[in-house]
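Now for today's protein.

===
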Amino acid sequence: MEWADDGDVLVARLDNDEDFFDSLEKVCREAKCFSGSVLTGIGMLKEFEIGFFDGKNYKIYSRMEPAELVALNGTIAFEKTGDNLEFKPHFHAVLAKEDHIAIGGHLRKAKVNLMNEIVIRKNKKAEFRRLRNPENNLTYLKFHI
């Protein structure tokens, strides 16, 4: 893993076999990016889960084999729990399988296959938080300046 920060934009390269979420959390913590928007993400993932919310539950698609990360977008938030800041990202991804069939949805877990390049716009004024909606049990983005 390697990253660079120009003050507004954070660019990260995640390397083979790294846990996607753990590595991205580490990058965000080191760069002090506690609120942000993923502008783009490309590379390959393996051992991933993609979820589709049907209005009541997530339908999970799991795959162990590598797939191209064609698109990634979402938000970065951290939630204060006691003395800790908990990483609370929300990512949607489109992945292409070897047969060029694309699958997409809520990225729930993944490992990096070969490499990923992720670009994040840091929010310096807007503070993102996640709250749970009791009606559907989903979390939603709450922000303030």
